[in-house]
Write a structure and sequence with these properties.
SBP, signal, alpha+beta, transport, D-Maltodextrin-Binding Protein, domain 2, ABC transporter substrate-binding protein, three-stranded antiparallel sheet, 2 domains, Bact_solute-bd_prot1
Length: 416
């Protein structure tokens, strides 16, 4: 009996030790489209595999709001969140708050450019989770109905096609719009407007050397062109739209064209979508210089203030690995950061355009976060505010880019 009691005691001690060694990790997840559910599912798979627990922190939808909240948490050196979901343009802003993942997570199979975008001073701030680039969504049924054989290749073609389809559809649906995009004054507008500038040959606001280049005729023309859509092929309310607002209108069958990220494909093909099976995807139009898509994407970093850094790093390693990236690509159209997955038959079956638009994802235009470093947020806010002033009719393109150039020079004067 004494021997049995000892064995029972030993088993209890081992069980207690096992429970005490299990970590609880808090993971910050985005909430756009299917993002939250897929994040929860991936975390649950890791928890089941490792015996650890994961709590989910639901981040705000808007990128700017999310950044503000994260900055508060990190400035307070809070250990409440262990793993943060970081925008591709944030490493320079937040580097000092994150564990160096170099040598801790194998990133050799990822796109080198995305790995490098997450590095600051030779420190690996985050691991690539999914990449993004702006795309043009269109209604294949309406394209055919109105006599078009292909989506627009230029912004001028888009305006003409959108106006024709809108006029026809509004005979029975007064709310129908030709084109919807992200026109609200936030980071999403920075992404849209950068695409307009680059496509017109107007540069990237600040070049790779840190020189302010936005005050030029092509940049002004790009903004004036976009402003000409508002109230004509785009609703006046487009200046308040974010990704989900635009997607809601397109997915309910009330728009011909939409600019959005790849995630919108999976939602558009869902059973709840009124345009399921009627969606095409193409590169965004050219303004005369080139087709341009802004590089987006999100990455996972481990907080310096986490009390469970080893487990948090293991979670990042798992979520950013090929198995999880494949699941997310198939179920939510989240673009992998691993080139080999773009040849995966299951992924291509779920997302045919991953293959045909591969060049769009690999040649996307980067926002000027690298040259402006810790001042990027100020630069982006100044840019989106200038663009918003043109879209809402408060300024013309030339006046806006001239003032913006002065504002950016002032920000640069304080060092970036």
């Amino acid at each position: 009996m004494k021997k049995i009691a000892t064995l029972i005691g030993l088993t209890t001690l081992l069980a207690a030790a096992s429970q005490s060694s299990a970590a609880t990790i808090t993971l910050a997840c985005g909430t756009v489209g299917q993002e939250l559910q897929l994040c929860k599912d991936g975390a649950a798979r890791w928890a089941k595999k490792t015996g650890n627990d994961v709590k989910i922190f639901e981040s705000p939808n808007l990128t700017n709001d999310r950044l503000g909240l994260y900055q508060q948490q990190l400035a307070a050196k809070s250990s409440d969140i262990d793993v943060y979901q970081l925008d591709i343009v944030w490493p320079g802003l937040l580097a000092q708050h994150f564990v160096d993942l170099k040598g801790k997570v194998d990133l050799s199979g990822h796109f080198p450019g995305i790995v490098e975008a997450n590095q600051v001073d030779d420190k690996q701030i985050a691991a690539p989770w999914f990449t993004d680039a702006g795309l043009l969504y269109y209604r294949t049924d309406l394209l055919k109905k109105y006599g078009y054989s292909a989506p627009p290749k230029t912004w001028a073609e888009l305006a003409t096609m959108a106006a024709k389809v809108q006029a026809g559809e509004q005979k029975t649906n007064k709310t129908f719009a030709g084109y919807v995009f992200q026109g609200k004054n936030y980071e999403g507008l920075t992404c849209n407007a950068l695409e307009w500038l680059v496509s017109f040959g107007g540069g990237t606001v600040v070049d790779k050397t840190g020189k302010v280049t936005v005050n030029n005729a092509q940049a002004a023309k790009a903004l004036d062109t976009a402003a000409s859509w508002v109230g004509k092929i785009s609703p006046k309310g487009v200046t308040t739209y974010d990704e989900e607002a635009a997607r809601g209108i397109f997915q309910s069958g009330n728009a011909m064209f939409m600019r959005n990220w790849p995630y919108a494909w999976a939602n558009g093909q869902s059973d709840e979508s009124k345009v399921k099976g009627k969606i095409g995807v193409a590169p965004l139009p050219s303004g005369g210089a080139r087709n341009a898509a802004t590089l987006g994407g999100w990455n996972l970093g481990v907080s310096m203030y986490s009390k469970n850094q080893a487990a948090a790093i293991d979670l990042v390693k798992y979520l950013t690995g090929p198995e999880e990236q494949k699941i997310r690509a198939i179920e939510g159209t989240y673009n992998p950061t691993i080139p080999a997955l773009y040849k995966d038959k299951d992924i291509l079956k779920a997302n045919p355009f991953f293959g045909s638009l591969f060049d769009v994802f690999t040649s996307a235009a980067a926002r000027p976060s690298s040259p402006t470093k810790g001042k990027y947020n100020q630069v982006s806010q100044a840019f989106s505010t200038a663009v918003s002033s043109v879209l809402t009719g408060k300024q013309k393109g030339q006046a806006a880019v001239a003032k913006l150039s002065t504002d950016l020079a002032r920000i640069k004067g304080r060092g970036w």
